[in-house]
Every structure is written in structure tokens, then in C-alpha cells.
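Form 7-S
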Amino acid sequence: MAKKILLAEDEKNVILGVRTCLDAVGYQIEIVEDGEQALDSVRREPPDLILLDLLMPNVDGYEVLKELKGKEETRDIPIIVLTAKAEEEDRQRAMDLGADNYMTKPFKPQELWDLLKNYLPEHDA
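Output:
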């Protein structure tokens, strides 16, 4: 059964790039375009992994991290931050809130696949 990844991202070109990358290796992907939708999606059907942008409308990625990592039922879902925020203080804040990893945009598909294999090892990416 394909692993489900939730992509919380509001930039269309990044959505297209990630979707193309993940579809190519057989991951099931759900896309939401703001933090509120991400929280709703996780409550409905928790994914195997979350790719999370920090800069989104309504509820930002930091709040999503705080909410999900603060609850027992969602704290173990791996969250990889995928963001244009490349400053060390942004990375540190995300990690302090519970992010499992941090990747800056732009990224290469192989980098994303390699990172995902660490969190979803039984999938042949």
C-alpha cells in the first residue's frame, strides 16, 4: 500500500514539482494550501509523513508544528519542513517546535527522495 504524504504548500510551482517527484515513485499525496487545511486533513486521516511549508495563509507552518507535535495522537507523524526560509534562526525555531527535518527550496528531487527514505524506509523510492 502506498505511503500517504500530506503536502502543505501554497506555491503552485512547488506543488507541481513535489507532486511530480512523489508520483514518480508511487507515494500517495494529498495537497493542502494553508495551515488550517493541513490541521483538518491530519485530524480526518493522519498521513505517514508531512511536508510542511512555513509561510502559508491562515495558519503558518510554525503553528501547525506546534499543534501537531503538542498532541499525543499526532506527535509521532514525521514532519519535514520544506521552505524558502533559509536563515538559521528559522531552522532552529522549526526544530525546537518538533520538526523532524528541514529542507530549503529550491531542492533537487533526489534530495527529497533520499530524505523520505529515512522516514518511510519500507517504500522503494
